[in-house]
Design a protein that fits this description.
This protein has eleven helices and ten strands. The chain is an alpha/beta fold. The protein has a single domain, classed as Vaccinia Virus protein VP39 (Rossmann fold, 3-Layer(aba) Sandwich). Strands 3-2-1-4-5-10-8-9 form an eight-stranded mixed β-sheet, sandwiched between helices. Strand 1, helix 3 and strand 2 form a beta-alpha-beta unit. The radius of gyration is 17 Å and the shape is globular. The relative contact order is 0.15.
Length: 264
């Protein structure tokens, strides 16, 4: 899944060109390094990491090199082809397994679990911003994680000061404040800008938002303090890192959540 920072409407970029663009900016390189470091702190040695929206494999290769087993998924065929080339050695060694295919097929395939269980789900460089029904996705994350599993997601900061130069941000400010989100057309899918509390609401009942980290620098703030406008030190961050903790979910609670999603 491809989300490039900056204005929301841009041509679809994958493979080697995506890697070139996503590594050209120093702040993006530092954000990726900070995310990877945090993920490795959260996933114990020899743990399984599920890399959702894995893109070109930059994160997956790092996790595998640090002794984690990696299951990776991306919907984009060109990105998966680049991933297979970039991560050829750890794939051949059995340290990385790549899954592809349409998103709907992925949801159906993993809705009731997998033959593996991940200690940590990662979603770096904003793939969750391309998902309309987040609760459905968090249900899948719940199905493929261990009882103490976590989700670490890098998401686009809806209040990033750098976006204030764009007319589209001001045009959608009122919906963002009123409903917690808005969507803009993107090259691959609609790009959803969400407030932190909206991510927290859509992760329930499967996960609870535990911490909010600034993408740069690596500071943390209590999630309870993020219900209102973002704290000033976070406004300069293009990305926010959200850490979710897995919850025990009864069949009745899951059924209610699924029915609510159908009605919406």
């Amino acid at each position: 899944m491809t989300v490039l920072p900056g204005a929301p409407v841009s041509p679809l970029v994958t493979g080697a060109e995506y890697v070139r663009q996503i590594t050209a900016r120093g702040s993006d390189r530092r954000a990726r390094a900070a995310f990877q470091q945090l993920a490795l702190q959260l996933a114990p040695a020899r743990a399984t990491v599920f890399d959702f929206g894995c893109g070109a494999g930059l994160d997956a290769c790092r996790y595998a090199a640090e002794g984690r087993a990696v299951i990776a998924y991306d919907v984009d065929r060109s990105m998966c082809q680049y991933f297979a080339m970039h991560c050829a050695q750890p794939i051949a060694q059995g340290n990385i397994r790549l899954e592809g295919g349409p998103y709907a097929d992925f949801i159906a395939r993993r809705r009731h679990g997998a033959p593996w269980r991940a200690a940590l789900v990662t979603a770096n460089f904003a793939p969750l911003n391309l998902i309309g029904d987040l609760q459905e996705l968090f249900a899948v994350f719940h199905a493929v994680t261990l009882p103490e599993g976590k989700v670490l997601a890098s998401v686009l900061n809806p209040f990033f000061l750098g976006d204030l130069r764009y007319f589209w941000w001001w045009r959608h400010l009122l919906p963002l404040l009123r409903t917690g989100s808005f969507a803009l057309p993107g090259a691959q899918a609609a790009i959803h800008r969400r407030r932190v509390r909206e991510f927290a609401a859509q992760s329930a009942p499967y996960f609870t938002l535990e911490r909010v980290f600034a993408g740069l620098p690596a500071r943390a703030a209590a999630a309870e303090g993020m219900a209102g406008p973002l704290r000033p030190q976070l406004l300069t961050c293009r990305f926010l890192f959200l850490l979710f903790s897995r919850q025990a979910v009864s069949h009745s609670a899951a059924a209610v959540a699924e029915q609510r999603g159908v009605e919406e």
